Batch of 2 targets.
Target 1
Amino acid sequence: MGLSPVIVLLVLPSIFAFSCKDQNNKDVDWFAVYKMPIEKDNTVIDIAQGLAFYYLDVNDPSQLRPSAQPLNSTNQAIANTLNQFYAVKDDKTIFHVMFNDEPYGTVSMSSQMANRVDSRIYRPELAAVQFGHTKGTLFFDGQTGVWLVHSVPKFPPPDHYQYPDSGTDYGQTMLCMTFTYAQLKDIGTQLFYNHPDIYSSNLPTSMASANPDLANLIAGKFQSGANSHSSITLTTKGGQQFKSFAKTADFNDDLYQKLLAPSLRTPFIVESWRRGSEVPLTCGDPFPVNDALTIKVGESLEFKYTKDHSKLARSALKTSPYVCIGDINRMTSQYVRGGGTTCISNDKMWNAFNVITTQNQC
Ligand SMILES: *[C@@H]1O[C@H](CO)[C@@H](O)[C@H](O)[C@H]1NC(C)=O
């Protein structure tokens, strides 16, 4: 008896043409999101519930547009994108990894410190500090895949789309990029430096040898020692370059001042979670980094940085129009955490992300 053709088919890797999906569930090369903190201004649907967001993508990069659907809807770009994975999550020929320094399913300090208005403020610093301060989801078949960079605690669930209560109060940022499979190796290297806290993963055996850093990472290893940072240019399926910056715990300094700004040779303003010991401003530096104090997105009310959990870095000069979305804060506590950011140079998007209205400075 010959080998059944059915069995041969079963061992072939599946092809799903994974892509970031836009607000209408159409393939899109990349998109970015500014999720709003709770505001009572009715400018975007469910902004009072902390479920509102603004959206921008490669096809319309000159404006952050209010989303007609809130984050708890399954009919918007983030859910559309993740739902491709959830629909086939049990297919063992698909690679995926989900990581978060506040992993899905963990109990936060906030629920233990009942009725304190600021009960969540110090929560990120109390998270498992041996891991990087890094959040994201990747899923790939053997041809294409998606990298979603984000700042939302306990997101996303491993098996279904849901926007968590832990992500409603504050502002958040997200960046989705579509890549060909060949780029996964380099993304894996960046993750190997960042040392993420992984709460769901599958690396098919057939993909392991081509992606050694991912294989090692999923086996619990990570970069350490003198070689403490990695900068890689990634190219999306549609041909857009993104510069990815990653650091390890051994870097022992601020990602933005000591890696991002000098690498791109331009000053930056960073909006991140700042509580406790802040990174001192380095006034004499040729490429100084300041911190955002207030933010205003679209028609929505301006808000203070204390209402924002985003990890956004925007270059200060239009001659080098970078927008970076990542997962580590600019705070001294983050010196000894892995983490990174991913940057695009695009003057339209840079204009659209002109959201930082005041900043500290020397
Ligand atoms: C989303 O949340 C809002 C506010 O709590 C609620 O009114 C709405 O029904 C929810 N939508 C979905 C699709 O769950």
Target 2
Amino acid sequence: MRVLTSMFDWFGLGKSSGARIACYHCGETARESQVLYVPFNGQQQPVCCRGCLTILKTVEKNLLTDAYLAERQAPSGK
Ligand SMILES: [Zn+2]
């Protein structure tokens, strides 16, 4: 079923397609072709889905970048 495999590849569902990139927000890996990019803290950051994209956009929009980055570096919750 060579044609079917190519179709899956075309839709980004093929097992063989591309590198995987870790989401900037949650760390989930996503295929390169499915990763979204959002401008955050002066750089384009990769995210795995619209949910993470929205979170980063909201943080940026509300000027909470510093708080967000501080939170990321905290070992675990308080
Ligand atoms: Zn994510």
